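Sequence only, no structure available. Ideas?
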Amino acid sequence: MIINKSSGEGNCIAEILSVINILQRNACPDNCLESCDRPTLGGGDNCLICNTRPVQIFTCLGNGVPFSMPTNKDLVTVCSNPEEITDNSECCSSVFRIEKIEGNCATFRVLAPNPNHKNKLPFIGTNSFFTFNLDCACAIRCLSDTFVECI
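Reply:
I predicted one. Tokens follow.
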């Protein structure tokens, strides 16, 4: 987990997400250190070349619960309430793929758990996107690199 320490020069989370975004666009099979900003996306047991470094976002007021969003753009569900996440776990996800960075704003794609348990890939891409002000993020958690189809 990377903790946001404001240095006055920019947003460290925005900088890390920018690196992840570039790496995803230039996916490479080399394996490196297991940190969020490791220089390449790695291949693994599940894929020959990974194209996504899934992340979770933690807000300063989230009490240690990852930020979550609906997996369907037409769904009117509030996912940031932990009780509601439990009741609607199939409708919400706290795992995202960075798609674009502009200043301190990032656009993410919501990733959903793969419902096909025979498939070894853990996530599927959804058509649900959101823009997040990175000044509101205090930490990110990177999950294992993976391949997400149709990205």
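The first strand starts at residue 2 and ends at 3.
Hope that gets you unstuck.
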